[in-house]
Design goal:
The chain starts with a helix and ends in a 6-residue tail after the last strand. It is globular. By secondary structure, the chain is an alpha+beta fold. It has helices at 4-17, 40-47, 150-154, 157-160, 173-182, 188-192, 203-213, 226-245, and strands at 23-28, 34-36, 52-58, 61-66, 70-75, 80-85, 87-89, 106-108, 122-128, 132-138, 144-149, 286-290, 293-297. Strands 2-11-5-4-3 form a five-stranded mixed sheet. It folds into two domains: 4-160, Alpha-Beta Barrel (N-terminal domain of MutM-like DNA repair proteins), CATH 3.20.190; 173-297, Helicase, Ruva Protein, domain 3 (Orthogonal Bundle). The chain has eight helices and 13 strands. Strand 9 and strand 10 form a beta hairpin. Bound molecules: zinc ion. Residues 278, 280-281, 283, 298, 300-301 line the site of zinc ion (ZN).
């Protein structure tokens, strides 16, 4: 699932290519992607003619502030990612499974990364002013699209329950410590990926953060001393910033807005590296699963 660095990568590209453009029309073959309003015709009517005035991120949510006091929220969820380009509708049949070298219903006009299989599961398309298109490729169709009244979103429970932004300069160690004191129950990995504690960290980056901080992912967070928590805090800032610089990861289905792979894969130390040697101590990296959650870690350096 795209986490903070992937969402941020998509957003910085969106700002360059999509800002100030107007949403002209929308198409989908999967109306269930649109959770709000449930009435697709209403959704379509309300977004048509709206100008994109601001693009921002909160946690893993991509937010488009529109001219009519509305905010379009897109959460890419498990396998979704936004793409920019130009496509031609190949046929009007319902979506069919894509074979290698095939492009489903939508054919990218140009050759290149948009024709990579992972980018061809297009279930949502926006036409923008200036002849550009914004697509959602989503193999499993778990993404969430919602159109909110701006004020309603700002005051919504789901939005306000999100924890602080880890890269915000106001997110200091003192703040982190204070939050953990309130929510100190649970395994360290589980707490780090709890969106109400900190927004934007998921499976991949929690493993990487804990490897760097040398903390065992299933250690009870209440058993960690201040020094250990400080190491985690520093690793959060460093790993997420580095991942943004590298354009996110592409071990999962994530691709950047232009359909290309992010560069974090080569900087990755433990996530999905079970059976390989730890780059710090040479011990074999393990993958363990506790109550449905798995973690990758080095049993030697992470105690
Ligand atoms: Zn190690």
């Amino acid at each position: 699932m795209p986490e903070l660095p992937e969402t941020e990568t998509t957003i910085s590209q969106l700002k360059k290519k999509v800002l100030k453009r107007t949403l002209i029309d929308v198409w989908t073959d999967s109306r269930n992607l649109i959770k709000k309003p449930r009435d697709y015709q209403k959704f379509k009517k309300e977004i048509k003619g709206q100008q994109i005035q601001k693009i921002w991120r909160r946690g893993k949510n991509i937010l488009f502030d529109l001219s009519g006091q509305k905010t379009l929220l897109i959460h890419q969820k498990l396998t979704g990612h936004l793409l920019i380009g130009n496509w031609k509708r190949e046929n009007a049949r319902p979506f069919r499974p894509v074979k290698q070298g095939d492009w489903g219903n939508w054919k990218p006009l140009r050759t290149g990364p948009l024709r990579e299989k992972i980018n061809t599961y297009i279930h949502l398309m926006f036409w923008l002013s200036g002849g550009l298109m914004l697509a959602l490729s989503d193999l499993r169709k778990f993404a969430k699209i919602e159109l909110w009244d701006k004020k309603e979103l700002e005051n919504s429970k789901e939005f306000n329950s999100l924890g602080p932004e880890p890269l915000d300069k106001n997110f200091t160690f003192e703040k982190f410590y204070e939050i953990l004191k309130r929510k100190e129950k649970g395994k360290t990995k589980q707490v780090l990926t709890d969106q109400t504690v900190i927004a934007g960290i998921g499976n991949i980056y929690s493993d990487e953060i804990l490897w760097q901080a040398k903390i065992h992912p299933f250690k009870d967070i209440s058993k960690l001393n201040q020094g250990e928590l400080k190491k985690i805090f520093q690793a959060i800032k460093e790993i997420l910033s580095r991942a943004i610089e590298l354009g996110g990861e592409s071990i999962s289905d994530y691709r950047t807005l232009t359909g290309e792979r992010g560069g974090f894969d080569k900087a990755r130390k433990v996530y999905r590296k079970e059976g390989e040697e730890c780059s710090r101590c040479g011990t074999i990296i393990e993958r363990i699963k506790i109550s449905g959650r798995s973690a990758h870690f080095c049993p030697q350096c992470q105690k």
